[in-house]
Specification:
This protein is α+β, with helices and mostly antiparallel strands. The chain has 2 domains: 84 residues, Phosphorylase Kinase, domain 1 (2-Layer Sandwich), CATH 3.30.200; 207 residues, Transferase(Phosphotransferase) domain 1 (Transferase(Phosphotransferase), domain 1), CATH 1.10.510. The chain contains 11 helices and 11 strands. Strands 1-2-3-4-6-5 form a 6-stranded antiparallel β-sheet, covered by helices on one side. Strands 7-9-10 form a 3-stranded antiparallel β-sheet. The longest helix is centred in the middle third of the chain and has 17 residues. It is globular and about 60 Å long. The protein starts with 18 loop residues before the first strand and ends with a helix. It holds the Pfam family Pkinase.
C-alpha cells in the first residue's frame, strides 16, 4: 500500500454518492454506517459488481497505516475459519486511508450468546497462536457474517498489537480498551497479556445477556468501585500468580480462563446434555450448567443494584 500527503487530512467532506478510487476498483458510497474520532465507515458498492463492502475511511494517515499494519499481523489466519473480519485492500484517497472490508451486520440478540462465545473463543485462540492481542473487544466489534447460520466475526484491529509488545510497551497500556470493557489490570497498571481480551469478551457476553453494561461506564473509579463490591479487594498475591480459576470474569488475569479452556466448557460443548432428550430448559443462567461459573458475579451485581434502588 502506498500513501501520499500529510499525516493530517486536508478538509474533504465525503458524502453519499461520492466515489473512492481503489487499487482493485472504484467504490461508490451508498450510505454511512457509523463514524467516530477515526473517521467514518461507509457501505459501498463496486462499479461493475453487485458486491457490497464496508470501507473504513480514516482521516489521519498515520492511524490508518497503523491499522493496516495490524491487519497484516493476522493475514496468515483464515478469516472465515477463525471468525475474523476479512480485508480486501487498503488504499489512500484524498489524504485519507481507506480499508476495504467485507460487510457484516451488528450483533444484539440474547439468543446468540452461546454462538458468540464459541466463535469468539475460536477467534481469540487463533490470535493467541500467532501472538496477537486485539485490545478493543466490545459490542460494536462483533458482527454477523451470516445471520441465518449464526456466523459471527471479530472486526476492527486498529488497536491490535503483538503480545510481546503489549507486555513491554508501557505507552500502549494507556490507550487500549474502552472503559466498559477494560480489564482491571489495565486500569491498575499491572502487567498485561492476551487475557485482557478474555475479560473484554466476558463483559460483552454479560452485556448481551443483561441488556446493559455490567459496570458503570463513566469513569475508571466507578468501574473499580463496582469490581471491588463484587470481587472484594485484590488479593495480596495478585502479582504472584496461581492456577486459573474457571471464570471468564476473573479479576486475576493469570487465573482467568483461556480461549482453549473456554472452548471445552460445558456451556460450549453441552457434553453434560448428551443422551438427554426432550429436556426443556429455562432461558437464563440455568439453561446450561456451568454458565453461571463464568459470569457468576452478575447475580451479585443484580442484588447490589436492587439494594441501591431501595435506598433511594
Amino acid at each position: 500500500m502506498s500513501s501520499k500527503g500529510n499525516t493530517e487530512t486536508e478538509a474533504f467532506e465525503l458524502m453519499e454518492g461520492h466515489y473512492l478510487v481503489g487499487n482493485q476498483g472504484i467504490y461508490k458510497v451508498q450510505e454511512f454506517l457509523g463514524e467516530g474520532a477515526f473517521g467514518k465507515v461507509a457501505k459501498c458498492s463496486k462499479l461493475g459488481s453487485q458486491e457490497l463492502y464496508a470501507i473504513k475511511i480514516i482521516t489521519h494517515v498515520e492511524e490508518g497505516i497503523e491499522e493496516f499494519e495490524s491487519m497484516k499481523l493476522i493475514k496468515a489466519l483464515d478469516p472465515d475459519e477463525n471468525h475474523l473480519i476479512k480485508m480486501y485492500e487498503c488504499f489512500s484517497f484524498q489524504n485519507m486511508i481507506c480499508l476495504v472490508f467485507e460487510i457484516l451486520e451488528e450483533t444484539t440478540s440474547l439468543t446468540y450468546v452461546r454462538a458468540i462465545a464459541q466463535q469468539m473463543f475460536q477467534a481469540l485462540q487463533a490470535l493467541k497462536s500467532i501472538g496477537v492481542v486485539h485490545c478493543d473487544i466490545k459490542l460494536d466489534n462483533i458482527m454477523f457474517a451470516d445471520k441465518k447460520s449464526l456466523k459471527f466475526k471479530l472486526i476492527d484491529f486498529g488497536l491490535a498489537v503483538e503480545t510481546e509488545e503489549l507486555s513491554t510497551d508501557t505507552d500502549i497500556k494507556i490507550d487500549i480498551q474502552v472503559n466498559p470493557f477494560r480489564a482491571p489490570e489495565v486500569i491498575l497498571g499491572l502487567p498485561l497479556d492476551e487475557s485482557v481480551d478474555m475479560w473484554a469478551l466476558g463483559m460483552v457476553l454479560a452485556c448481551v445477556y443483561r441488556g446493559n453494561y455490567l459496570f458503570p461506564p463513566k469513569s475508571e473509579y466507578e468501574t473499580i468501585r463496582a469490581m471491588v463490591q463484587i470481587f472484594g479487594l485484590p488479593e495480596a498475591d495478585v502479582l504472584h500468580r496461581a492456577k486459573y480459576k474457571e471464570r471468564i470474569l476473573e479479576v486475576d488475569p493469570e487465573r482467568r480462563i483461556t480461549p482453549s479452556q473456554a472452548l471445552e466448557h460445558d456451556f460450549i460443548t453441552m457434553k453434560h446434555l448428551a443422551g438427554k432428550t426432550q429436556r426443556r430448559c429455562k432461558v437464563g443462567w440455568e439453561t446450561v450448567e456451568g454458565w453461571s461459573s463464568w459470569l457468576q458475579p452478575l447475580r451479585h451485581l443484580n442484588c447490589l443494584l436492587e439494594l441501591d434502588k431501595s435506598s433511594l
